[in-house]
Amino acid sequence: PLMFKLVFNFDWFRLFSTVLQVIKVYSEDNTSRAVEVPSDITARDICQLFILKNHCIDDHSWTLFEQIPHMSIERTIEDHESVMEVQSGWGMDSHCCLYFRKNYAKYEFFKKPLDFFPEHMVSISSETNGIMNHSQLIQTFLSSSSCPEIHGFLHAKEHGRKSWKKFYFVLRRSGLYFSNKGTSKEPRHLQFIAEFSDSDVYTLLSGKKVYGAPTDYGFCVKVIQCRDFQPLSVFRLQSVLTFCTDFIISLTVILNYTGLQQSRSVLPMRSISENSLVAMDFSGHKTRVIENPSEALSVAVEEGLSWRRKSCHRLSSHGSPSTSQSSMSSIAIHVAQPWFHSKLSRDEAQKLITQQGLIDGVFLVRDSQSNPRTFVLSLCHTQKIKHFQIVPVEENGELFYSLDDGHTRFTDLLQLVEFYQLNRGVLPCKLKHHCARITL
To answer: Secretion signal: which residues (predicted)?
Structure first.
């Protein structure tokens, strides 16, 4: 009884000694919600809280972002970071805010680390004696304290200057350097740019408009204790987006390896959409797995056709709807879907997909801006966003939708999306992750 009393009193002491504070979190549609949280709450705790409050599916892609609107920059707050420490660095009139939204690329580094360290951009250190290949080097980096050297070309703009210049950059554990003589890595040619033990890396939201960059893709470096948020330098990608991603991920891993190791423990090792779905044949007395790719493709096409034949019955409770009833149902059925974004422009679609992660299969469907009768499927593949027009096709007075000039037809957009979630068809990859707007 005495021990129980001591434990009980200790728990009450912890409860009353916890300081609660109010934070305000925004969603993609700029709605906000204020919640009271403990002072030691982490970014992952905030995500879990809003997942529960909004009844979201926890697929490990929900992320908390720090956004600085007047500088048009933002960054991912790592799972282990204290949210109150992040807010303590904000100025009184900085208008900084927290955003809760999807980032499908959040743990992509742990799934495909080699994609973030292209072989031509990673130097094998002398300590390996040249006996490691590229894959072994990355695995050693992930399991030890060794640090590969990353290098490549970027355009840079220093604060206070208007012009952008191309330089050869080198990222090492000691910091970021650029060469003032071509691609030379000699110490006398390397000029120090930034050291990251007390700095954060932010991505640009409007690189062209705000900083006059050649593209919107870029990043900047900010000292954590700097309240005026003046970046040391702003960089933009010279040729491919990969190096920008490599750079940011590399800094995160090198400087915050402990926190990322904690995040790794909650990483889903298998993707339901990618690894758990197999082609099945249910036509016989016993079901079987279809291993022949050609047979699986023909079954998929036939399944798509059967969806089209059965669609009228699915859309109406009476079993034999008229064309007008089917048309009205097909309109209503996609408007309510989370992947449909109605009057979203091409640029807005690209921005939304970029925010939620440039990985294969991230998609959304929107109205076409050029043709009111058609729709557009915006899809990310190989870190590029591609747009496919969904064309309406009429046959015997009935309206269908198609991505391949009428060869494969669907009575509504829901059928089309469901089909391409299971079959690649004419697309470069399957539809895996939809971009959805949430309201807090």
So the answer is: 1-27
Q: What is the DSSP letter of 287?
A: -
CATH, domain range 108-264 = 2.30.29.30
Give the position of tokens 């829901």: 414
Span 354-383, pLDDT tens digits: 889 889 999 999 999 888 889 999 999 988
Predicted confidence at residue 346, as pLDDT, reads: 93
Whether the CB-CB separation of 53 and 93 falls below 8 Å is answered with no
- The mean per-residue pLDDT over the stretch 249-272 comes to 42
Q: Report the CATH fold assignment for 2-102.
A: Ubiquitin-like (UB roll) (3.10.20)
- Predicted local confidence at residue 288, as pLDDT: 73
Query: 101 vs 48, 66, 174, 264, 356, CA distance in Å?
Result: 12, 11, 33, 19, 7
Which band of pLDDT confidence, cut at 50, 70 and 90, is reported for residue 290? confident
Smallest CA-to-CA distance from 233 within 165, 149, 173, 151 is with 165
C-beta separation of 220 from 74 below 8 A? no
Q: How far apart are CA 202 and CA 218, in angstroms?
A: 9
* Tokens coding 437: 């707007």
How far is it, in rounded angstroms, from Cα 50 to Cα 61? 13
102 and 60 Cβ atoms separated by less than 8 Å: no
The string of DSSP codes covering 235-272 is EEESS-THHHHHHHHHHHHHHSHHHHHHHHTT--SS-H
Model confidence pLDDT, tens digit, residues 245-255: 444 444 444 44
What does the pLDDT look like over 294-333, one tens digit per residue?
Answer: 676 666 666 655 555 554 444 443 344 444 444 444 456 7
Q: How far is CA 31 from CA 49, 97, 104, 188, in A?
A: 17, 12, 21, 52
Separation CA 310–CA 333 (nearest Å): 15
Predicted model pTM:
0.71
Topology at the third CATH level for domain 274-434: SHC Adaptor Protein (3.30.505)
Q: List CB contacts of 175: < 8 A, sequence separation 6 or more.
A: 192, 193, 194, 195, 196
